[in-house]
Design brief:
Length: 79
């Protein structure tokens, strides 16, 4: 999702520690982790639904192309 070096993540942790304090930081980390997990689950479900819809559309197109007559195979009257 995003990249961060060890020093950048350390700086973010230290800032969060100063702003929220050592008592609230574990609860905050837990809440953030739950929200990130929920967001990932939503994105995974969204991607799976898109893939299912695309596969279903491809199957419909394949079935329609298979069932439709080819232009050369159509016989004309008087020919």
């Amino acid at each position: 999702m995003f990249e961060g070096s060890f020093w950048e993540l350390s700086l973010i942790f230290l800032l969060a520690l100063v702003v929220f304090g050592p008592e609230r930081l574990p609860g905050l980390a837990r809440s953030v982790g739950l929200w990130v997990g929920k967001a990932r689950a939503v994105m995974r479900n969204f991607n799976e639904q898109i893939e299912r819809d695309l596969a279903a559309e491809e199957m419909r197109r394949h079935a329609a192309a298979k069932d439709s007559p080819k232009p050369d195979a159509v016989k004309r009257d008087g020919a």
